[in-house]
């Protein structure tokens, strides 16, 4: 007989499970996932990179290597970080198994059971999953179209013991909202004042379709209270499983020990392959291609929603990223809607709230599907919502 | 200011840190690591495998894929498991980021704080690191040359609340000992009787240099109380970061949810690369080459130790694996010895005991170095021990 699982384990299927399950169904138009467009992966260039790097390397490329990850790649990321306002050295960087591992490691490093954790409402389900293991005391801060409400954050920090703030400042998952520069400054200052750690999760930064990039929150951090996470998953390929974490040396050193017990280290083959790709390709050119395609898809979805959603609904108008957030009238339940659509699936939003579990929201992804599918899906979604409202009125 | 770390975090450098640090010093002969011989990595064949597989695949090879990992590779592992006495389906298998991640995930799935965990004394440091996070109540079972003392295990299970037993049945890290078939049977029976989970960590199974392979502990498990871990790290390449975990579907399903919060999934590129390698190469032939080279190295070290260690020392005589375990007279401290050797480093054993922290043992690795280095290192080690004994006698 299998012994009982840990009391930390939530045996209910999680929203991430549901998301991965839905994403696999070929018969449906999936607004549910968070996948890049596979047609945009630089397949030939990546293949050349792996082939050339393995060919010219010694056998040591297949050996255990550094826990922090291949140093030349960390140097590149340090240089890139400069463009976001962050000054750091390779020793401040750990290459992680996706940005997800960075969240998990930081949760493990800082959290004791029941510690206070501030999250945006709504937020990324993978963040919540990583924190849940530590039985946190959650404080939800409402999202606004220029980022979380910092007045409420300030009050929360004054009145409660908070250890960690988790935020996605650029094109937030799931709302698509971007935090204003003023809020970034205030957030860094508040974290310093209240001695709170900030996880700045920033996988969508480079996927800005209009306007200018904003400095990272960490660029305003004078007291090492901010750790920034980035990733190649959305701008190159998720199967490279390569994210990064930038923080104080003291934090990165301690995470190295922790990392050993998690999975030892990233694959040196993948890290060197990425380094080789960056040697021979201009990733900026590649990213500008992504921006172009994704902007068209985003606009197609914004148009589709404008044309098809009833006026009782509202939705976010992002300037980048992967997602649009739809607010239904409170009388509608997004979970019920999910069973009523004919062709389209989406991520119903209740599981994206740490505590309030609001049931009248939908997260829609536009990157992983075609413009034709976006158009069709929006019509189906609009009809389903209109029908549900009509049934309600009867 | 950086907030305080979690109370779960051990801020002392761990033995794994020390090991990785020592392994990087080119001026030393390292008996300390646990590295395969890089000259034996099938570099050309692996390069061909990656190149061919990427070339003939769709772009989806670079996309997010299954959480359990590429199914055809899981099918192969299910077939391989048959040869170890295990009957399973691909759905019973998760591909992990090295076997280390398997230990960590299982610790996370089963352990509540202070739960009882049985470990061999000595044991693998990475196992202890993975459990330590859960503040376990450790029960040490002494190692014998045919595996842990099962009488003491039986008594321990009768008298205490134990949740998990962690064992390395083949060519144990660090002793090199192999568990007898009788003990495997008794262990499986006891786990079932007392409703305890067994982690059978088996990365060295294929590296047997003499004698016949023994059935896995899981082959005697009638009640799904055993999970078996394996890995390509020691038989193909550690940089592939590919291990596997075989267990009851209920366990694997629950681990899938947990895995999402850790790092989402393994790299599909690496998994398909391994699958392609296995399509075109006979790994059995490759492994028989490893066995031949490692057996010579092991014999060189056994001879070197016989010729150079004073009679007050004893050491294990393994028939496979990566390690030899040296017992010093109790008057000597292995940690002090480490500072006195001229050319050679080793892993001092105290950190490999969960609680007893015995200080008179050394773990020596013979795979990652040349026979010439083994010979030289044994002379240096012998001289250092003799000198230390002489100083003690004065």
In short:
2 copies of one chain form a homodimer. Chain A is α/β, with parallel strands linked by helices and 394 residues long. Chain A has 12 helices and 14 strands.
Molecular structure report:
- The structure is a homodimer of 394-residue chains.
- With 394 residues, chain A is of the alpha/beta class.
- The first copy, chain A, folds into 2 domains: 15-42 and 285-393, Alpha-Beta Complex (Aspartate Aminotransferase, domain 1), CATH 3.90.1150.10; 44-280, Type I PLP-dependent aspartate aminotransferase-like (Major domain) (Aspartate Aminotransferase, domain 2), CATH 3.40.640.10.
- The first copy, chain A, has helices spanning 15-23, 43-56, 71-82, 98-110, 125-132, 150-159, 181-193, 249-262, 268-280, 283-308, 334-338, 371-393; strands at 29-30, 93-96, 116-121, 137-144, 147-148, 164-167, 197-201, 226-231, 243-246, 314-315, 323-327, 344-345, 347-348, 361-365.
- An 8-stranded mixed β-sheet of chain A has the order 2-9-8-7-6-3-4-5, with helices on both faces. A 4-stranded antiparallel β-sheet of chain A has the order 10-11-14-13.
- In chain A, 54% of the residues are buried.
- At the A-B interface, helix 1, helix 2, helix 4, helix 5 and helix 8 of A face helix 1, helix 2, helix 4, helix 5 and helix 8 of B.
